[in-house]
Amino acid sequence: MALAEKIAAPGVPDLPTATWTNGWRIGQEVVMSGMTGHPATREAAERGAPLGAYDQTLVVLKKLEALVTAAGGHKHNLIKTVVYLTDIADKDEVGRARRDFFGGVYPCATLVAVKALVFPELRVEIDAWARLDVDLRQTQTLSTES
Questions:
Q1: Residues contacting residue 53 through CB under 8 Å, at least 6 positions apart
Q2: Is the pLDDT of residue 132 over 90?
Q3: Which of 143, 129, 119, 136 is nearest to 28 (CA)?
């Protein structure tokens, strides 16, 4: 049986009152809870300069990267993301942030519109899976064509 290891990333601390864990490493797999831009989103909103979907997405992707790095990997180990948006019209800004962050090598993705997230200023939440034994920069294309 594989050992489950709780991931401790300095920039993404587990909250002492939380009823979830930010991430687990189980063998070569890393499973991460949904991440949001909080508290950066709250601080920006309080300054009167709320973060849009692009900036929130980058904050979240950097949190996911911090968790994967703490587990012993890097952002190109991310193999699947699920993006939750409070406004589906933000999909293009999320896509732009993904292009800027991943640089042309993308994990599988699902995009879902939701009514709301935990705080009103949040527009984006992303959960993710990674495999430490996979680097998406080293891929081949499978095809059924002869």
A1: 85, 87, 90, 93, 94, 97, 123, 124
A2: yes
A3: 129
